Structure formats: structure tokens, C-alpha cells
Amino acid sequence: MIHTQDEIIIHLPLSKVIYLFQQPEYFKHWQHGLIDFKYLSGAPGAQGSTRQMRIKMAGQAITMKEEITLVDLPHRWKATYKLKGVINYQDNKFESCSDSIQQPLTNINKNNQGSTRWLAQSQFKFTGMMRWVAKARPQAFEKQTRQHMNDFKIFAENYDFKNDRPT
User: Which among 81, 106, 144, 165 could bridge 88 via Cys, Cβ 3.0 to 4.6 Å?
Assistant: First the structure.
């Protein structure tokens, strides 16, 4: 089993971060490797809903199933991801924060709009052959969440809110 915890500051107010986090048409901009997805059950994005995702990892397409297990936005969002040999429990927490307290002066939000702290906790459980993969390359799993968070930060901070479109 692997446990990870990552934190990032996004230089946008909580409301804008959550708006972008919930938009499925933007997933491809920050979920590295996402090929496509389709909804399987429930209202898209609602607690209890499921979707199938195809992601390119290590040069091959893998299929996983996502189940949203908690929606308490704008503050919390949880999901479980299942694929052969791996279950990933993802717990995301969001909160407003002050730039001047959280970041050095060089990173102050230029528009002085406030910032958002995103804390992500992941728990990976493995079965079968994936136990050996996880022991041999734990960093591959540890880096995955951090990469998505960094990609989302870049996407969100460069989003054109005036015209409501990615830049």
C-alpha cells in the first residue's frame, strides 16, 4: 500500500478553482494522458456517479473506472479509481488562503483575487502482479497525483475567465 499527500497553492479564488475543477470539457487540459471518458451511471459529477476513463500511461492505453464517493464542494471531493490490480482512493480538500501568508512575495497573485490551497491525499492498494510493480517503482504512483495538481494549477492560472475559455 502507498499513501501520498500533496499540497499546492493556486493563485485564484476558491470559486474559480472549483468552477474549472468541475468542468469535464477541460479534463483533457490537466489530466495528463487522458484519452477519453464516458459516463456509466448517475448524474455526471454527482456523488455515486461512475465513469470509465481511458488513459495513456507508459506508452499504453489503460482503462479504469471512477466512482465519485463524496461531493461537498467547494471544500471536499472524493473518488475511487479501479483498474486491474490497483485501487486508488483520492481525497481532495480545497480552502481559501491568503497569498501574503502562504507564498513568497515573488509569487503573489497579480490580480490580488485571493488564492486556493488544494490538499490531495491518495491511498493506493495493490493486488496480483501490481504489488511487485508498486514495490519496484513506488515513485510512479507517488508522482501521479502531484503531476495532475501541477497541470491543473498551470491550466487554471492561465484560463481566460473574461472569454470563458482555455488559453
Answer: 81
pLDDT tens string 90-118: 999 999 996 444 444 334 445 557 999 99
Residue ranges with strand state E in 24-131: 34-41, 50-57, 60-72, 76-83, 86-97, 115-126
CA 99 – CA 28 distance, rounded (Å): 28
Which of 89, 118, 63 lies closest to 1 in space, CA to CA? Answer: 89
- Residue 108 CB-density burial (10 A; 0-12 exposed, 13-18 middle, 19+ buried): middle
> For 114-130, how does the pLDDT look when each residue is reduced to its tens digit (9 = 90+)?
999 999 999 999 999 88
Give CA–CA dist 140/85, Å, rounded.
15
Domain boundaries defined on the chain: 2-157
Identify whether the C-beta of residue 123 lies closer than 8 Å to the C-beta of residue 2.
yes
CATH for 2-157?
Answer: 3.30.530.20
